[in-house]
What does this fold into?
Amino acid sequence: MTEILAPAGDEEAFFAALRAGADAIYVGLKDFSARKAAANFSPEQLKDCADAAHVVGAKVYVALNTLVKEGEVSAFFAAALTAWNAGADALIVQDLFLGSLLKKTYPEMTLHLSTQAGVCNIYGARLAKRLGFSRVILARETPIADIRAIAAEVETEVFVQGALCTCFSGQCYMSSFAGGNSGNRGLCKQPCRKKYRIDRAGHESLSYALSLSDLCAASDVPKLVEAGVSSFKIEGRMRSAAYVAAAVEYYKDILTGAKQAQLAKDFSALKRAFNRGNYTRGYAFGQGKDLLSPDIQGHMGEQIGTVGARPGAANHRKDNAAENDKFTFVCSSYVPSDGDGFKVIRGGNKEVGGGVWRSSFPQGKGGFYLQKNADFRAGDGVYITLESKPFLPSAPRTVPLLLHAEIAEGKPPRVRAEGPFGVQEYTADFAAQTARSSPFTRQDLIDCFEKTDRFPFCVRWGNIAIDGNCFLLRSALNSFRRSVFSSVFSLLCGTREPLPERAMLAPEMQKDFPVATEKGDRIVLIGGDPAEASRLGMEIDCAVFRPQNYKNSAEYEGFFKVSEYYAWHKYLYIPAYCIGEDLEILGRHLEGFDGVYTESTFVLEWLRGRKISVMLGTGCNISSAVAARVALFCGADEVVLSKELSLAEIGKIGDASLYVFAGGSVKVMELGHCPFGRDCSGCDRRSAYTLTDEQGRAFPLLRYENSVCRFEVYNSAPLTGCPHTLSRRVYDFSALPSEDAAAFAMGKEENVRTHTSGAFRRGTI
It folds into this structure.
């Protein structure tokens, strides 16, 4: 049976998931969690929760899925050790290379590679497996063909429910450059949920142009099971306990073949708990028309009625206090409870108001009244978004326990327990005495042991043998019961010998991860016109070619023809989002290039054994010296540090052989979808658009073609301010106006009119 994996941002959600039947639950500690705003768990809470889960056969995974900077690596290793010793069954890690070193240091640990690592093809999965990860959590953008191929080689976890990020996994820097809050560090401010307009016909009005609907892959569950998916993941560590329980119950019932009436009830509870703009099937089976949610932001809920007239009454009668300008009538069979929250939505896509129902409101037949806070009109839909009394499973999951007992005068009572742990026998530390009056009975024993206290046991009885006229002191028997249950609980929890703290990069491991020694000034230029930049004085060591259409051989030929006149190394740009079909195209065009510049680590496996250099770009999010060392050991020839690091943090790394992203166009999003809804028949197929926010900031939106059209968002201002004393610098001219590109090429960055220093000065948090 495929695992149902539930989120828990706090203990209430954790136990709601457990009671609802989750097979596994993922949580975060206070640090290194990609949901830093959640309550998260202390080590003590984690231990208690892990014990509670293990007793009923569930697992607990701990997310340590943020980027780790220089100076934090020791704390990261300490957090991993703490989580493992507290009972974690696996650790979820984003940093592939740091995770590999963690596995070398603690081979006993089980590691899952986070979706933030952006694995969407077989080579990314193979690399993860080679570096010690036992499971890969796939990028949400992975199509079913790639899911099937990956699942055949490594344990695979796939999102089936919850929020969808606008940007391809791990490649979003918009929050960082908008305000210094990094999504890769668990502090995303969700700029993708703001309003934008695009300079294309039909998209000129402000809307939630980047916002995606919530994922619900329920109808595709059989196809995902057939593809070999090991775990169905529910997103939502920031969501309520009611949402978590509803989602778990829905997918458990789908997997167990529940009847349609039950599934409809489950789905209703799920929509009421949280529903952003209705649902989408997501990316696995191709972009649908329901992927984008441009009209409604936030929780939409479930429609339970419409604004209308109370039956038998003329609407808006002045002599009826319930139908004047203060209240409006909702035609509905739903019976509200005090504190229920509602939204009023017109035409299915325009939120016009809402309110909270109170029992003090006027009463009506055939519906209920809501207080007006907008111009509600007849026919407007009324959606419930908050149930004051949501259904939560109250009964704990229990473990069946079969007990047998022998009690005889003058002998210690004995109990034999049978369960999932096998058979255990227990003997009390006191003897049964002779009764002076009422003897001890079978029912007395049953009454005592059915008090299971905090232990999740469902007690059944086998043989109970009472020999003689026995008397048992109640307090002694209670103590014996507690010791039996405590022992059984410990057996079900399982025993794990705590791992001792070990030195990272111990002496015997140093030879595996040597320090790079190559030095020398080098400038890498991505995109733009390298010939023009060279003519203006930029001394380019490596020109990275970015085709507008990866299938167009003429573009490659044009680049090679220009390159004949220059001594630069020729590299091909490899985007982060590359599925199997993309790689087939890219593979046909590698000949003639000296190397590749890649935004994803999968290339280390894709090109393994081939004589072509690999430069790991900023999209690989390498943020520490030790991660860089492991990357070089794993096959990288050159490494570019994360563009979220400050100059001070780069200085702490102190490795002059590493490259720094020094300026120019800053890609802040790699989209996994078409922002125009894949309406190809009416597409103008421009290579560049402009995405403008409510403050008037203009973000270049570029289109390129691989197996399909893809889109990238660039920051509204180019990056400047990197000192030229740094010997190895990377510039990106992909989205720069020609005059700004010329200023960079001539070393006159101060002439760039609108610019930002990005993370250089303040860094990101």
Remarks:
- The chain has four domains: 3-164+212-280, 302-386, 399-493, 520-675+686-762.
